Amino acid sequence: MSLAVVRLDPLLWLVLVGAIGLLLPHLPIPAIAMVVAALGWRRLHEVRDWPLPHRLILIPLAFAGGTFVLLHYHALWGRDAGVSLLVIAAGLKLLETRDARDEFGVLLLSFFLLVSVLLFDQAVGIFLLVAALFWLLVGAWIGVSQPVAPAVGVRLRNGGTLLAAGLPFALILFALFPRPPGGLWGAQQPSGTAQSGLSEQLRPGDFDRLSRNPAPAFRVRFEDDVLPPDQRYWRVYVMSRLDPDGPEGWIADARAGSPRLDRGEESMIRYEVTLEPTGTHSLPTVPAPEDTPAHTRVDGKLLLHRAAPVDNRYRYTVESALDYRLDAAGLAPAVREHNLRTAALNPLLADLAADWLDLPPADRIEAALAYFRDNGFRYTLSPGRREGADRADQFLFDTRQGYCTDYADAFARLMRAAGVPARIVTGYQGGEMNDEFLVVRQSDAHAWTEVWLEDEGWRRVDPTNAVAPERIESGVAESMANDPTLPGVIRRDEDDWSRQTRLFMEQLDNRWNQYVLGYDSRIQLNLFGHLGLSGLSTVALALLAPVVAVLAWLGVLWWLGRRADRRAAGSATDYLWNRLQARLDRLGIARAPRESEQAYLRRAADALPGEAGDLRRVATLLQAGRYSRHPTARQDELLRIRLKTLLRRLWLRRRRR
C-alpha cells in the first residue's frame, strides 16, 4: 500500500498540461519522453494508486536529464537548455510531491513554465493562452493556500478579481517606464522560425513553392502616398554569376563597393518596413535606398545589408530615390565582360539573339520583349519540363510557358547573347493594403532583369510584364485567376470568408507586433509628446512610472471595495443609505443601537442645521419606501437622488472643516 498523498489541484493539473504542452515542440526528444512519462505516472498514481518512485531513483533520473540536455545543447545555460532543465525538473517534482509543501513547489515551478512559453513565441494567440493559464494558476494558488479549497468557480472569480486589480499597475509601468531600444523583439526567436523564402541561388522551380505561400514576408507603412503597384519592386539579391555547378542556375553577387549614383531629389519617398525573421543580412528596399538605419550599408548594386542577421522581427526606416541612374558613367571592362558571359548551352537562343546584333541596344531589348508578347507565351505556376542544360531553349521554342524566374532567366541570357550586359534581380513585387500597412507576402516573390545601356546605366526590365501585365498591377492571383490551387488570401477573393478571417487576424497580429512587442523608446517618446511629458528626463520617468502605477492600483482597489460593498448591501438604495450612515458617523453622529431610522435622521437634522431640510426629505422618502404597501420605482429613484445629494453636501462640509 502506498502512503496517502496530496492529490494535485485540478486547476494546477490543467496549467501543467497546458504549459508543458506548449513547450514540448522546443524540447529534445529525451526530455519529451521523460516529462510525458512523469505526467502519466503521476496521473496513474492519483487514479489507480500507483506507487511513486523512491527518491533514490529520482536522483539518477535528474542526472540523466541534465546529461541529455548537456549532450544535446553542449551547455546547461541559455534559453533552450535552461527551459529543458526546467521542464525536466517540473516532471520529476511531480513524482516526489507527497504533501502540501511539495504542491506549493509545483505551483511555483508552473509560474516559471508559463513565462518560459513566452521566450519562444510572443504572438497574440500564445499570449492570450498563457494569460488564461495564468488565471487558472492564480485560482489554483487560492485553493492550495487554504485548508479547504473553495469551489472552482469561486476561485476563478476571485483570481480574476486579483488579476484585474493588478492590470492597471502593469499597464502603466509598461507604458511609462523608460524603454530600451528595440522593444520586446530582442527576445531570441526559436530556431527554425527564421525563413526568407528567397535564396542566394536561383534554379529552375525555386519560386514554385513560394507562389502558394501566403505568409507575410514584411509590412510597409509609407509616410506619404502609397507607391503605385508598378513601382513596388523590393530588391533583395542581384545575380550576375552563372552557377559553376550548374550553368542553368544563377548565384547572388557578393557585397562590394558603394553605389555610383545620380538621383533626382524630387523623387524621394520615406517608408518603414517591419521584416519577419529571415536569418540573412539582406533588407528589402525600393531602389535607390539613401537614408538608411544604423549598422546597415548600401552596396554598389543598391542592396541594403545589415551587419547582423535578421533572426528576430526587425523594423527599419528607409528613404529611397525613385528617379536615379546607376553606373551611368560606364562599366569597367571586367565588369562588362562579366555581365556578358554566357554558358553557350542554348544554341537556338544564341541564333535568335544574333538576328538582333545590328540593332541599337535599346531596340534589342524591345525585340526580345516583342518576341515574348507575339509568340504565344503564357505565365503559369506549372510550366512543365525544366530539365537539361538547354532549359532556356526548351522554354523559348518548345513549352513557351513559365513563371517569373523562367522569363527573367531567358531574357537575361538573350540580352547577353545580343551583346547587352544583363543580370537578374530577385526580391518581391507588389503587395496588398491591409489597414494602414502594405503587406508583402512570400507569394509576391519575384524575379526580373536589369540591362545596362550607355549614358543610362542599369535599367529595370521585367519580361513578365510583357506576358502578364496583370501580375505587376494586381499580383500573382490576377494573372492566374482560374487556378483553384491558390489559397484564397492570395487570390484576393473578396467572397472567401477564410481570406477575410486571415486578413483580420493578420491585422490584429500586426498591431500586436507594432504597438506591444514593438513598443520601443521611439513609440514611447511619441506617446509622451501627446501626454505633455516629453520634457521629462529618463530618471524622472523612472520615478514617475511606479508612483502613477501605485496610485492607479489603489484606485482600482478602492473601486473594487465599493463594488463589494454595493453587492453586500443588496440594492443601490441600501448601499447609499449605508454610506450616509458612515459619513454621519465620521462627523460624530453615530447611530445608537436599536435607534430607528427616523429618530436617527431627526437627531442628525438637529445636529446639522444646514442639511436639516435634506435629512428630513430623506427620512420621509425612506419611510415611504419602507412601509408603503406598493412602493413605486419613482419613489426609489427620488430617494437615491436625495441620498446622493446629501452625501455630496456632507463631503463638501467635511472638506471645509
Oligomeric grouping of the chains:
single chain
Task: List the uncertain runs.
Answer: 186-194
Instruction: Estimate nothing, just give the exact number of structural domains.
Output: 3
- Gross morphology is elongated
- The whole-angstrom Rg is 36 Å
How many β-strand runs? 19
| Portion of residues within helices | 40-55%
Describe, in plain words, how this protein is organized in 3D.
- This protein is 51% helix and 14% strand.
- With 657 residues, the protein is α+β, with helices and mostly antiparallel strands.
- A six-stranded antiparallel β-sheet has the order 1-4-3-15-18-19, covered by helices on one side. Strands 8-11-6-2-17-16 form a six-stranded antiparallel β-sheet.
- A hairpin with a 3-residue loop joins strand 18 and strand 19.
- The N and C termini lie far apart (74 Å).
- Mean pLDDT is 85; it is low at 186-194.
